[in-house]
Request: fold
Amino acid sequence: MKKLVIFDLDGTLLNTISDLGNAANHALAVNDFPTHPGESYPMMVGNGVRKLIERALPAEHRDDRTVDRLLTDFRAYYDEHLCDTTLPYPGIPELLGALTARSVNMAVASNKYEEATRRLIEHFFGDISFAAVCGSVDGVPRKPDPSIVFRILGECPTPKAETLYVGDSAVDIETARRACIESVGVSWGFRSVRELTAAYADHIIQSPDEIISLVADKS
Reply:
């Protein structure tokens, strides 16, 4: 029986890709760089906003000064538009309600900067009580470094054997592995099942309600 489920945010709880892509394209356009079609962005996200900007820029312009400038423009735009098209994935609100009814603690571990992470959780899941909502903060390594998981376990002390980590990318699976926590890859996110398989996810699921049986598993 699991007592804590840690969720990735983007591509796991929320489909944020259009708003992320729009913000990146805005930052590129106002700085006279070429933009990208929306379908390019799922492979650019997952390692934090700074890495997204680096990947979106032409290779010869990925110096710190340029990235910093675009990052400022990205955040100014995204902070105003982070909920324009973003929505929970089908079945996620019901899953969170079911876990709450079973007294299972829930937490969020995201590489998105923490202010935006908290705003999104409050906007879409304000009626759900999370034990911890953690995003990227200065001075703390991003996933797949497990520091964010250890921060959550500090805020919600739970044995690792009673914790489940749920995410949509190899970054998430590696984070769980480094933290020595059982991992669940979701097929509905930004990355492929092939990527999750190659990362050795402990489980790969097709719908949110499958998490209930994993939580209840006593093996």
